[in-house]
Amino acid sequence: MASPKAAKEGGERGVDPNLGVDYVVHYKIPENERAEAEASYVQLIEALTNVGLTSEVRPADDSSLLVFVKMASPDLLREQAFSSRLQDWLHGVRTSGPNASGDLATSLMEEPVSEAERLRLVYLAMVRTKEEGGAGITPGVGKWKYVASVFPLHDRKFNGAWITRLSTKYLLGNEDLDEIKDKFGEQVALYFAFVQAYFRALVFPAALGASTWFLLGSKFSFLYALGSCLWSVVFFEYWKKKEVDLAVQWGVRGVSKIQLPRVEFEADGEAEDVVTGEKVKVYSPFRRLGTQLLQIPFTVACVVVLGGFIATCNSLEIFITEVYTGPFGSILPFLPTVLLVTVLPAFSAVLTAFAKKLTDMENYETVDSYHAALVQKEFVLNFMTSYMPLAFTAFVYLPFGHLLTPYLDFWRAAAQMLTFGEKELSTQDFNINPDRITKQMFYFTVTAQIVNFGTEAIVPYVKRKLTKKAKERGIVGKVAEIGVKDTPEEASFLSKVRAEAELEMYDVTTDYREMVIQFGYLSLFSVAWPLAGCSFMINNWVELRSDAFKIATGSRRPIPWRADSIGPWLDALGFLSWLGSLTSPAIVYLCRGGASGSIGAASNVEAWGLLLTILLAEHFYLLVQMAVRVIMGKVDSPGLQRERRERFEMKKRMLGGKVPISGAIGSQGAVAMREKLAQSALHEEAGLGVQGSLEDR
């Protein structure tokens, strides 16, 4: 760390709010494994030093340490930045080539290093394998099992100003997204860009839904179903182009090609890379395919276990609320909810653990591919738990409600047996409640959103405030017990670091999941309550700012990873958009009672009418999708325009600024161009030589 005086002066100038620290390693030393932990600690310091990182240590409490890490020198940081940018250039991520003088190395070094890039490079220096020039530190794994966490420190001054700006702005501009990108990395910035684009796009379904509800005074509207289908297609295709524009603008287009290898990957052989010619570790795709086929029984298990349990709880809730009229009528309706809240998480936890185990068995080479496979399996679970209650009401209860009578008799008999009563239970005839699905949609789109906001933002904040002083006293006491006192200059800083070490890691996947599940409610079931779009608009304005608050105060600062797409969530959006084009018209047909318009009579629903509705809806979706893609293809993307311009300028500089206007350039022109191309090849070779020398150093 910087000296206290220098750090104080730097902080006053707004240069260095964290005393020069790049990362903090929270290192645990269990009392019963002290000797082993201390030996591993020595290896940790040596590994950091060998890759050019300096470290200082302070106590966290009586059983853990805080290891402060930073890059040893600005020159080493520039070398790391050059090596990373050269790799980007070789993989086509960066389109800029040699500068006006034809010097590739100087061109790559002209761009300043942002804070996010610096933190990413330092982190990679710690976690990359020794073969790749890193320290090979894998928190919680192997000999690094005592490394509890590795995290960068928050810039609290920036965070406070950032939250203030967001709370006073209705919409985020490009400068706001660039600021998030430079501070927290492209992955987090891309999430904020997605929420912002989704929020803007909600104007159409919100306006259409309000018009349908208030002007037409109806739900289950074919007009709204078609409009919702059109909107979901347009938004999905728009976002695909938007994320390409952002990737080009931020210089990360194609960065997914440069992925972080998984330490847990177990190769079964080596092969030659078809592009670079290097020897790489490989795993048989046929073996992986055999493991991936286990996803079929996994999906069936999700449907049977989660679907069956949710359907059972729904039928019990229908019996209690619409048939039973006996004692405790105001309390018993909470029984199905209690069952869902207590039992469903246990089922989900077991299936989630199985999904993780299955993904581990699939043995992916990179972190990104592993994460994408795990997200796909978890999405199946989220799909079942989120949409099954509404699907049961829309496709079973409303159109075929009278078929439920035998099952409701089962609950009547079961209740009679459990109460040991001689008198018949007080019940009434079962009648379908057409407002049931509307009330459910209101719960999922309003009540559940409010509850989620409270549990995600308010409850953790209050909990931290209530326990802050107790923790501070406990930590101070433990530090005093081991005979170490913080210096006055460092006391405030160390208190902040200890507090951040206790926070949870921020995971952008959780926030993406919330938005995608919400998109599914809108696409699949909003025909039952067209005001869902209005509710989501309000929620998402608050959600974006609460997520910023969560990042700034409720979690450790995220590692500034790069990303050029929202990843597997893009496939989930496409699937929900397509499925919504089938379910919305089907719900409208079923819940309007088919031919006679009577809800709840199965005989009024004709199979040919339902199948024809679904068939026409799917063809409408495909035609709309084709038309939208053709239209958007005609409109040139600003990002792709910029990319083509940069590539053209790069080739122009490589040719010395002489680009032929026509095809006939003459023999002298051809000779000159060959010389320029040869020179540019030498420059590229020199650039590769510089990379090699840097790696050797």
From TrEMBL:
Main subcellular localisation: membrane
TM region(s), chain numbering: 188-216, 222-239, 293-311, 331-354, 379-400, 441-462, 519-538, 607-624
Domain called Anoctamin alpha-beta plait: residue spans: 20-147
Cross-referenced Pfam families: Anoctamin (PF04547), Anoctamin_N (PF20877)
Domain named Anoctamin transmembrane: residues: 180-646
Entry's localization field: Membrane
Superkingdom of source: Eukaryota
GO cellular component, one term: membrane
Membrane topology annotation: Multi-pass membrane protein
Molecular function in Gene Ontology: chloride channel activity
Keyword Membrane included in the entry's annotation: yes
Keywords: Membrane, Transmembrane, Transmembrane helix
Annotated protein name in UniProt: Related to IST2 protein
Species lineage: Eukaryota, Fungi, Dikarya, Ascomycota, Pezizomycotina
